[in-house]
Amino acid sequence: MYSRLFLPIFVIIAVVVGVRYHLMLKSETSYAEERYQRDAGELATHLQKTLLPILAAPDRGALETALSASLLLNPDLTAARLDYAGGHLEALRGVHAKREYPDWFTRFSRIRAINRSVSLGDATLALSFEPTLPVGQVWRSVHQQALISAVNVSIIYTLLGIIIFANKRMLRRLADATNRFQNGDHAVRLPVSGTLEARMLASTFNNMAQRVQALVHKLQQSQNELSTQLTRTLLAQQQLQVEKDRIEVTLTSIGDAVITTDLTGRIDTINEVAQKLTGWSAANARGMELHQVFVLANNFGQHSLLKSMRAIYAGGDVVKVGNQSLRHRLGQTCIVEYTANAIRTPLGEVQGSVLVFRDVTERRQLIQQISWQSNHDTLTGLPNRSALALRFEQEVARAREQNYLLAVCLFDLDHFQHVNQSLGQAVGDEILKQAASRLHDFAGQRHYVARLGGDEFVLLLPDLNDRAAIDYAMGKLMAALSRDYVCDGEAVNMSASAGIAVYTGNDISADSLLRHADQALYQAKITGRNRYHFFDADLDEQVRTHHNRRTEVRNAVRANELALYYQPKLDMRKGRIIGMEALLRWQHPQRGIIGPGEFLPIVEHTDVIVDIGEWVLREALCQLQSWRTFDANWVISVNIAARHFQRHDFVERLKAILAEYPDVPPHMLELEILESSALSDIAHVRGIMLDCQALGISFALDDFGTGYSSMSYLKRLPADMLKIDQSFVRNMLVDRDDLYLVSAVIGLARSFGLGVIAEGVETIEHGAMLMRLGCDLVQGYGIARPMPANDVLSWVASFNTAAVWQAAATLPPILNLHTEPAGGTSQLALI
Predict the structure, then answer these.
(1) Are 708 and 675 spatial neighbours (Cβ–Cβ below 8 Å)?
(2) What is the DSSP string of 661-700?
(3) Chain-centre distance of CA 348, in angstroms?
(4) What average pLDDT score do residues 228-234 get?
(5) How many angstroms separate the CA atoms of 788 and 564, rounded?
(6) Is there a common fold for 240-365 and 378-535?
(7) What is Dmax (Cα atoms) for the chain?
(8) What's the rounded Cα separation, in Å, for the pair 418 and 404?
(9) In angstroms, rounded to a whole number, what is the distance separating the alpha carbons of residues 784 and 795?
(10) Distance between CA 328 and CA 346 in Å, rounded?
């Protein structure tokens, strides 16, 4: 059999080696080609940066030096040719790298020659690369592994040969010993030596031979003892007594309680366990009737026992009974289960009965505890979701039959997650228990409360006549839930929101009612929390549509359908691009490019906005890292949503993201936040801003002037830049009020020592007016629309309107917009 394994083993090895070398060749080739392509791209970029300044003032000697040096930078480069206005130059490699691999190996390599053309304004650079070195690198790896595989296969077949030789020798010894044993040599034994299998086989054969030899010897002895069998009858009687004693010892030591009776039902034996459970000693119980010692606490159980025992004495089958209450002689009871059966002679005649029983009190209590836990929440003791489902259906049926209102109230503690994270899970659990206790006290015997999980509770209010009764009950309950929660002696302020769905007898399921209550709870959350909201059927379709769109946005994040567009920021007075604002877009597979205003509001109150925000930060920093070779002074602005910015771990997560891009200094990142996002907890927001500024990050207040702007907020928020909303800038040339507002914001920024940048600059006139008002930094369609990252560098290279902005900068500044010149013509009219 081992010999026949050579072929399948060879096939398996061949398949494994083939797959291994296919994967290894693919991996090595991919790695070499990736490095080959990357080196070619880096050399092209390097030559582009090197040759552009030389081409500005053509120096043929410098160009030839640069082309010749490129051959030293990349050994795969075979030729570099430059066509420019002054002529044609080329550098060719004289001696090519020696090929280390055979010709046939090139058929397995996917690495091909690269011919790359680079545009240098009016000039063109052509680069040719040959993959001699990458292919050689792949050949060396494959050749080295092939030698190792050959050694491994040789070792495997050598070991197989040794195993076959050892097995053949073992089988010859076994065949010889078997023949001798069959011929009567029962003392033959195999030597226990050799391999593990040989030793085991020898031991097995020797044990078998020894047992057979002993059996033969016993048979011989039995034949010799047949003549003396009659004389051993009295030994036999003594043995029966020993067996009887052994049975009694067994009954004494067994874990179950055992009572045996005769055919009249009187007790013969009772073991120690039975004595403890019944309270009767063996001496007192022997001879008594079974039902006088084994006393069941209820008459029905006692009657059933007597009936079953009569059937057993008559030859009936075994009886098994559970959950019976056994009364101790002193009066206490325990729960037992018992089995009764007949004791029969070898001929099948009934001689008596045996009753086996055990105490199952603890097991029954455990079953009851498990049953309770399966229907109750272990933390609060309230019924859980499964228990609620049964009661819910019952209450809906009762409400339908008796024609009354049933209110389904779904509660959720406001900002519980934040409290749980900031104060610890122990405090969160204590708050949940206290909230459950208040709900339970309110529910009493009339209503029904359950915990769904987390901080969600459900209250069923049956037997209601009208909505006024629901309002009255909810007012009391909301007041109870809004009281401070005392945890470790400290008061924790917490409120709750509730959604209410009312069953009015229509054909609707309990699940639908609970879903309606959940939708109403969502409305209570988004309208301010600490309130309750009734389900509105008219909004049901809107809510479901909103939920579906929110799911679509979540799937878009997972499918990597989001992209960043970049809008340049211009210093008009210097005529220089100072950075970019990263703007989110959704590349919808059917609807095309979608702006953020169509999908971000859908998820701004969920954690999806956090995932999107962190993706934007990583994408923007990665892009900035690549742009730093073009302009190391650019700053990228990223908009941060309020829910994301106010998370307790925002600073730690931001540090981790910055650490992923060590080549980007933190001061090159600017975070833009809406001023309205800071109003809910201005102290918390201020602390986050200070922690971020300690890292070097700057802040801009976005859409300044559209929210609840006040100097007190501006004083308390450590912003670095004010961003004037585009709605004011766009209309300031035709609307005096918008012009005054823009001027006021610029003056306010100066007063607080802040920078200021204006959005919505659509024309040169907008820019000229802003410079005269004292604002030099702008962005808008008049400069550039948001564009994909791949278009940014080409746009910057072609942007050259510095003279226009600088000419506008020579106009005198506007000092007082309210002063009208002679003739009553306003300053606005003179622009």
Answers:
(1) yes
(2) -TTS-GGGEEEEEEGGGGSTTHHHHHHHHHHHHHHT-EEE
(3) 67
(4) 60
(5) 7
(6) no
(7) 156
(8) 40
(9) 9
(10) 36
To which residue do tokens 């008796």 refer?
Answer: 402
Q: Which CATH number among 3.40.50.80, 3.40.50.300, 3.30.950.10, 3.30.70.270 corresponds to the domain 378-535?
A: 3.30.70.270
Specify the pairing of strand 77-84 against strand 87-92: antiparallel
- CA quadruple 134, 140, 143, 148: dihedral sign: negative
Start-to-end CA span in the chain (Å): 104
Closest CA to 742 of 725, 767, 719, 717: 725
Pairing of strands 456-464, 448-453: antiparallel
Q: How far is residue 813's CA from residue 770's CA, in Å, rounded to a whole number?
A: 9
Helices (H) and strands (E) in the chain, counts: 28, 26
CA–CA separation, 582 and 786 (whole Å): 9
Residue 744 burial class via C-beta count within 10 angstroms: exposed 0-12, middle 13-18, buried 19 and up: middle
Tell me: pLDDT of 675 over 70: no
Q: What is the pLDDT of residue 27?
A: 85
Is residue 439 within 8 A of residue 455, CB to CB? The reply is: no
The values of phi and psi at residue 776, to 5°, are: -100, -20
Q: Quote the DSSP letter at residue 231.
A: G
Amino acid code (one letter) for 265: G
pLDDT of 707 reads 53
Q: Which pairing describes strands 405-413 and 448-453: parallel, antiparallel, or unpaired? A: unpaired
Question: String of b and e for 216-254 (b: at least 16 CB within 10 Å)?
Answer: eeeeeeeeeeeeeeeeeeeeeeeeeeeeeeeeeeebeee
pTM above 0.70, yes or no: no
Q: What are phi and psi of 608, to 5 degrees?
A: -60, -35
What is the domain partition of the chain in residue ranges?
Answer: 3-148, 186-221, 240-365, 378-535, 557-830
Q: Which of 609, 605, 606, 607 is nearest to 596 (CA)?
A: 609
52-74 confidence digits (pLDDT tens): 888 887 788 888 888 888 888 88
CA dist., res. 670 & res. 668, Å (int): 7
Q: Which pLDDT tens digit goes with each residue over 545-598?
A: 666 788 888 888 889 999 999 999 999 988 889 999 999 999 999 989 999 988
DSSP state of 230: G
In the sheet that holds 448-453, the strands lie side by side as 448-453, 456-464, 405-413, 496-503, 532-534
Q: Which two tokens stand for residue 84?
A: 């420019």
- What per-residue confidence (pLDDT) applies to 91? 87
How far is residue 570's CA from residue 207's CA, in Å, rounded to a whole number? 97
Q: What is the rounded CA–CA span in Å between residue 763 and residue 54?
A: 36
Instruction: Enter the tokens of residue 322.
Output: 């559970």
Contact partners, residue 79, CB within 8 Å, separation at least 6: 90, 91, 92, 93, 126, 127, 128
Rounded (10°) CA dihedral 97, 103, 107, 110:
-10
Span 713-758, pLDDT tens digits: 677 788 999 999 888 899 999 989 889 989 998 998 888 889 999 9
Residues 72-104, buried b or exposed e (16+ Cβ, 10 A)? eebebbbbbbbbbeeeebebebeeeeeeebeee
Helix (H, G, I), strand (E, B) or coil at 115: strand
The string of DSSP letters for 452-484 reads: EETTEEEEEEEEE-SHHHHHHHHHHHHHHHTSP
- Cβ burial of 349 (10 Å; 0-12, 13-18, 19+) is exposed
Could you give the CA distance from residue 565 to residue 543 in angstroms, rounded to a whole number?
Answer: 31
Indicate if the pLDDT at residue 541 is higher than 60: no
Top CATH class, 557-830? alpha beta
The superfamily CATH assigns to domain 240-365 is PAS domain (3.30.450.20)
C-alpha 574: how far from chain center: 49
